[in-house]
Predict the 3D structure of the following.
Amino acid sequence: MEKIVSLCKRRGFIFQSSEIYGGLNGCWDYGPLGVELKRNLKNYWWRVMVHERDDVVGMDGAILMNRAVWKASGHEDTFSDPMVDCLLTGKRFRADQIDEQSGWVVSFSGAVDFEAFQKLQQEKEAPERSSIWSEIELAPHLRGIFANYSSSFDLDSRSGYVQLSDPNGQMKSLELLIKRGTLGTSSLQPFLAMEIGGDPKSFRWSSNRGVNRAIKLAQDFYRKRGVTNPIVIAVGVQREEHSKRFNPENGALLTGPRAFNLMFKTYVGATEDDSSVTYLRPETAQSIFVQFKNVLEVSRKKLPFGIAQIGKAFRNEINPRNFTFRSREFEQMELEYFCRAEEGMKLLDYWLEERLKFYESIGIPPAKVHARKVPDEERAFYSKGTYDIEYDFPFGRQEVEGVAYRTDYDLSQHQKASGKSLEYFDEETKQRFLPHVVEPSAGVDRSVLALICEAYSEDEAPDEKGKMEMRVVLRFHPRIAPIKCAVFPLLKNKEPLVTKAKEIVALLRPHMHVFYDETGAIGRRYRRQDEIGTPFGVTVDFETLGEKNPDLRDTVTLRDRDSMKQERVTLKDLPGILVSRIS
Ligand code: ATP
């Protein structure tokens, strides 16, 4: 992944958003090559899903919609992820994405001030001279605490821990002292910390390198709560296996899950109050549902038929991660395919197959793409069947598209909430009913990332002197490659070669995105194009000018990026050959 991310930046596919200001987490900008790749993917999706079909029309809805849409669709109340926070760092995680951890868990019931505790300990030696030890009511408590604990103190950092032998009894005594202020700045907030991993047979409170990591975490936890020099009070330790209660990055306890709405809230108009609230859309689908009736009327389609849309969606993801995979602003390519209830399950399978074919047609081999049937307990309550289409990313197998049979849930919600009929009238049977819908919903950014990951490869190619050297090559399918063909004059200081090469650029430009390059040795120029995935290279040489052999006048070499083979083709045939290979 690191190599891919760095290539993306170096060659202008993807940059961090607002980079010069330190970036904005979860947001990305596509550079000159990234935008071409993304556009090619979207155009091809549109071609396959809309232009090549009789039963689908497109639309382009606004990102901002009436808040009532999000109330009716259920997003305002339920579009949330369960989220947990690290009690130490405050870092937020999605509860269902926490990796399980095993280790020793130490329970702490609070922390007291180092100086105050040390003082009491020293005064124990001569209680009669201590104003506290000599108080009749306190003495039994003090003896209870100080008679039986193990501890370790670090004079340099002025911190440490005590491990109580009778936590219940001793804690009562400590609480009493804390309430009286005898133990300085203290905290009685319970905390748990896991020493991730660790020796599963036994727990060591301290080693010769210092105290245990769980204790260090607890010291940090109580420092953050105002105990500057904490002695943490450990009241128990036990082993936990496969636990999701702790921050996998440090072992600190996480809060319990709380629902976190993923929609970005905004205000429409000049007043910022509850009456002007709406949201940036978290999916494109809802504008299709609320325009269903309009599109049906103007397109005069009969069931089954679909409405397709490509557009931005926004989700305030808790942990944006894996490069562009989980972003806060992204694009979706969605089709809502309306049908009769009895066709729903069959069409779900049909669309799954169609979508799997799509990934193959953009160069992702079927072996790397998987259909996962989403189990009942994970599926939205209104869906009768859902598949996730997953790709084997370098960081694991992850969803790029969902194909869901959403029944008539959305249309019926909007019909109810708006009071407007969204029914379909079947002229043959004279029946009115709400259509059901099957939705293939793909992520543009996730698909682009899959394309880049799939295309990335390293092999060897000869340099100028024929010596083999490492070559980075993006093996994009020609259909989606950002630049289709590069045109090179063999030498840049030979005017007829340059003129001819520029004529060829002009010849090809109406048909495809072409790139002209005259700088550097020809091998280096090929390599630069290989690295950005340009499938074809055309070189204009002296043969093209007919200088050596008149039969070769107006022919060029056409080089294939993957095989590195070169063929001689006539200029007359060149556009046709290239167009057939990239379409
Ligand atoms: P996840 O479980 O990964 O959050 P999801 O199941 O919520 O995804 P859907 O609501 O089904 O996703 O959205 C459809 C598609 O939109 C996804 O398959 C994905 O390609 C894309 N998508 C969703 N969320 C994001 C995101 N945060 N960043 C990039 N793409 C996304």
Observations:
- The chain is about 30% helix and 30% strand.
- The chain has a mean pLDDT of 93.
- Residues 32-51 form the longest helix (20 residues).
- The two ends are 29 Å apart (CA to CA).
